[in-house]
Design a protein that fits this description.
Elements (H helix, E strand, L loop, with lengths): L3 E5 L1 H10 L6 H10 L4 E5 L9 H10 L4 E5 L3 H10 L3 E4 L17 H16 L3 E6 L3 H9 L4 E5 L1 H4 L4 H20 L3 E5 L7 H5 L6 E4 L1 H10 L1 H11 L2
Parallel strand pairs: 1-2, 1-8, 2-3, 3-4, 4-5, 5-6, 6-7, 7-8
Helix pairs in contact: 10-11
Length: 239
């Protein structure tokens, strides 16, 4: 089976928030993404609401016939929102106030593990799948299984920043070992961060890769080729 594509629409919302005039319309974007082959819509509801708003998530969950995958931090506020709106899946991600974008996987400490486990348990009671955004660290992947995560999304930040063939090969080896463990533990394997039209194919071929979540490169390409064309081009690369 081909790898599924989750299209992240955060930066369409970024453009809308620049003027706060109601457009570009995210539901229209979601419908267009579906028409051109998106398998999921991905949205990061941040604490500072810099792009996606609560109403955006609610609107798309209610009105778009496509799975909605919401990224959020493991906070009480976000848990309440997730349980009320009930997207198809939630990816728990780290979040810092002044970061430009997510800077890597979750740091799993005894305190954070307890909090995340409680979050996952609450999601499962509402039949919402739980994902953890992790660096390709074998210990963290085992912990994800132990606390009930359905999905592991491997961060490809380090991979996307490689400058040489040697660096890239080393990182692919690390990601491959992590992928094999995710598979062995019978969790879904997703991946994302920094993936673009030049580097995505190696990640798509990791063992039993289920879904790639990609936003910035698709939105950037769409400025020149159109949103639908940009999605189709990415889909063709990850088949």
């Amino acid at each position: 089976m081909s790898v599924k594509l989750g299209v992240n629409i955060d930066h369409i919302a970024t453009l809308r928030q620049a003027r706060q005039v109601g457009y570009p319309n995210l539901l229209t974007a979601g419908k267009l993404a579906k028409e051109h082959g998106a398998d999921f819509i991905v949205m990061h509801l941040r604490h500072d609401r810099r792009h996606i708003q609560d109403a955006d998530v609610k609107n798309l969950v209610k009105n778009l016939k496509l799975p909605i995958h919401v990224e959020m931090a493991a906070t009480t506020e976000m848990q309440k929102i997730a349980l009320k709106i009930k997207p198809n899946s939630v990816c728990i991600v780290p979040e810092k106030p002044n970061e430009l974008t997510t800077e890597g996987g979750l740091k799993l400490t005894p305190a954070s593990i307890k909090k995340i486990k409680s979050f996952i348990t609450a999601l499962h009671k509402k039949n919402i799948k739980a994902s953890l955004f992790l660096d390709p660290n074998l210990k963290d992947i085992q912990t994800a299984k132990d606390i009930g995560s359905d999905i592991v999304e491997l961060s490809t930040k380090k991979y996307s920043e490689c400058k040489t063939f040697k660096q890239t090969s080393k990182e692919i080896e690390v990601l491959t070992k992590a992928s094999l463990l995710v598979n062995k533990l019978k969790m879904e394997l997703h991946s994302g961060h920094g993936l673009d039209y030049e580097n995505v194919q190696e990640i798509a071929t990791l063992p039993k890769m289920k879904c790639l979540n990609i936003g910035f490169s698709i939105i950037s390409r769409s400025l020149f080729s159109g949103f639908g064309n940009a999605i189709e081009e990415m889909k063709n690369l990850i088949k």
